[in-house]
Amino acid sequence: MIEYKVVTTNVREAEEVMNRYAADGWQVVSTDTVSGVSMTLKTTPLIVTFARRTA
After folding, report:
1. Closest CA to 33 of 25, 41, 24
2. Do residues 29 and 35 touch, judged by C-beta distance below 8 A?
3. Which residues are paired to 46 by β-bridges?
4. Which 3 state secondary structure label does DSSP give 1?
5. How much is the pTM?
6. Quick check: 32 and 52 in contact, CB under 8 A?
7. Is the dihedral of CA 11, 44, 25, 51 positive or negative?
8. Please, are residues 48 and 4 in contact by the beta-carbon 8 Å criterion?
9. For residues 37 and 8, is the Cβ–Cβ distance under 8 A?
């Protein structure tokens, strides 16, 4: 079975968030930005979808 998790962060913090979830066995399967919300790339909201296999 595959378990999914959707997390919203910003581009500036994305690497830290992805590494934290990767340490728990999650893999990034999709990313998308929320356009029109922020004036700078670093604070643009980012939606990250993770997946991992469960026993």
Report:
1. 41
2. no
3. 9, 33
4. coil
5. 0.84
6. no
7. negative
8. no
9. no
11 three-class SS: helix
**What are 38's strand-pairing partners?**
none
Secondary structure of 28-54 in HEC code, one letter for each residue? EEEEEECCCCCCCHHHCEEEEEEEEEC
Q: Six-digit token pair at 34?
A: 């929320």
How far is residue 24 CA from its own chain's centroid? 14
**Cα(8)–Cα(53) distance, rounded to whole angstroms?**
21
> Could you report the per-residue pLDDT of 4-52, keeping only the tens digit for each?
999 999 988 999 999 999 999 999 999 998 877 666 667 788 999 999 9
Q: How far apart are CA 19 and CA 54, in angstroms?
A: 19
Residue with tokens 């643009």: 44
